[in-house]
Each structure stands twice: as C-alpha cells, then as structure tokens.
Amino acid sequence: xxxxxxxxxxxDDNIANLKIAxxxxxxxxxxFTLPSAAKLFDFxxxxxxxxxxxxxxxxxxxxxEAIKILKDRPETRDIPIIFLTGISNEDSEIEGLNLGAxxxxxxxxxxxxxxxxxELHLTVxxxxxxxxxxxxxxxxxxxxxxxxxxxxxxxxxxxxxxxQKLQRAILKTVSxxxxxxxxxxxxxxERTQRWLSFLISGLRERGIHTEQIDNxxxxxxxQSSQLHDVGKIAIRDGILLKPxxxxxxxxxxxxxxxxxxxxxxxxxxxxxxxxxxxxHAEIFAGTHHEKWDGTGYPLxxxxxxxxxLGRLMAIADVYDALISDRPYKKAFSHEExxxxxxxxxxxQFDPALIDVFAHTADKFRCAAALR
Length: 371
Fold this sequence. Notes:
Elements: E1 7-11, H1 15-25, E2 30-34, H2 37-44, E3 51-55, H3 63-72, E4 81-85, H4 90-99, E5 103-106, H5 111-181, H6 188-206, H7 210-213, H8 218-224, H9 237-240, H10 248-255, H11 257-270, H12 276-287, H13 308-322, H14 334-343, H15 351-359, H16 361-370
Helix pairs in contact: 1-5, 6-13, 6-15, 8-12, 11-12, 12-13, 13-14
C-alpha cells in the first residue's frame, strides 16, 4: 500500500482562487475547497486536515478572526495554517504570525510555488509528529525502565532481607548452641552485645576513633560479636562443664577456644563469599582475650597490635564475667567490676577505651540491674 495522501483544506471566498489552488495540489493531496470560515468550521466537525490554507480578507469572518478560534480549540490548535492574502505589508504578516500562522502566500500565487510551500510545511509537520511519537515512545520506555529498576531494587531489597534473616537465624542457632553447651555462662552472648553497643556509643559521644567507627555498620558488628566464643564448641565437656575451678592444665586447654574459634570461622569463610561479617567475627573470636601489655592469649599481642574490635570486646567480656556467677566465684557488684576494670587500665585494657568505659559506666549499671 502507498503512503496515505494528506488532507488539505483551502478556504477562500474567491471561487477562481479555490480552483487554481485545488488544481495545483490535487495530484498530491486530498484537497477540500471551502468558500467561507463558517464552512470551514462545519468541515472541521467531521474532518481533521493536515494543513489549512486560509484567506485573510473574507466577508462575515476574516482569516484573523478564524485563526483565533482555531488556535483556541484543543482539537484544531495544532493544525498548521498558511495565510493567503492579497495584502502585501509587513504589519499584516507579523499580525498573522503572532496569531499562530506558519507562513504567508501572496495572491495571485503561482501553482508550483504554492505546491512547494505546502509540501515544505507538511514535511515539517510530519517530522514534528514523528518526533513527538518518538518522544512519547522514549518517555514510555523510560517510565518502563524506571518501573523495572524500582521493581528490581525491591527484589534485591527483599532478597537481601531474606539473606539477613537467614544470617540472623543461623547466628542465633550457633550462639544458642555455644551457650547450651556452656550452661555456666547463660545469657553471656546477648549481654556482651549490649555492653559492646554501650562502648561504641561512648566512642561516638566522646569523639574518639571517629574516623574508624564512622565507617562501621554497627548492627553488623554487633551481630558478628555473637561468634566471639564459638570456639568453645571444640572444648571437651569435662573442662567446659566442670563445676569447680580449672587446673592449670585444664585452663590451658580452655584458652585454646580463641584459636579454635578462628579456625571454625575460617572454615566458614572457605565456603562463603568474602564477608565483613565473618572478618569481624574472626577478630572477635581470636583477640578478645589479648591484653594491652602483651600477656594475653592466644597470640600475645600488645597495644595497638591488638585489633580495635578485640580491645573493645575484651572490656565487654570481662565486665560480664565479673558481674556473673561462676563455679569458682560469686558475681561481683557493678561497682566492684568497674573498679577491677579501671585498675586494668594500661595493663589488661586499652587506656583510651577504659576512659570511654568509665564515661558510660552508668549505662552498664542500669542495664546490669535489669538483667
């Protein structure tokens, strides 16, 4: 099928002009001749031409009056209008262009020139419509892409939440397993998370190590701290569950839980993608019994060679051990525990972190009273 012929309406009260214009255009376009503006409006009720050739000087309603109505109606305002006029002056042309006409053709007109001007404007109109169609298509595609991205982000968020829930469930199961084996320290893992959170809050309040903790995902760190005693799974029951004080040989065996914890987490890392969570957990497990003066275990690290998370956990772990009953001792009061920890400033514990502990001691006291 060939291309659909464009519809052109010619409005002029001069019958001779209508015949000349129609003759010039009829081989290329579907041409409709109309003798007045009133007839044009009747025609437009049933048709939408691609272009209107509109005479200015007509009785009853002239071209200027007609174009105002055409441009005021949503259904006709986008139809290109070329004025036909026998008046040749700049003011008349400017007025017509200001009213929305796309061009002027002076009468009497030459048929080839008329055809060329109509062809030009219809080509421009066609290209404009194609551009608008492409713009609408691109806009639609852009909206579809935005919706796809939103849906994709939601799917990723949902999947991430599922993974995090699974991670939390596994962590809780493992930490419960550790505590169920070591029933002497029931609730220790949950409480050390709380003490650790107090210390981190205290660091922020006092502006200490801000360059480090500002980059932390605190929730992730607190979750990973649950594995700090995971190595106790590998300690035999005779030592782990002994109701009394351990012998030196038994205590040496118990101390191995830190190294066992690192080994267990490394095994997990071998079968899992690289994870900050597991890196944090490994630090907690392997270094929470190191001491500032180098007399701790398992590696005998000293000072700032001890990872920062390990130095934090050392305080939280010892505080909880002090305020809890053990087979070899009764629980100390909060005040006694604070005094013992403060006495370890610079020997067992990082001095700067002990200052933070002292600053947050009231939080520890209130939480310990409610446990």
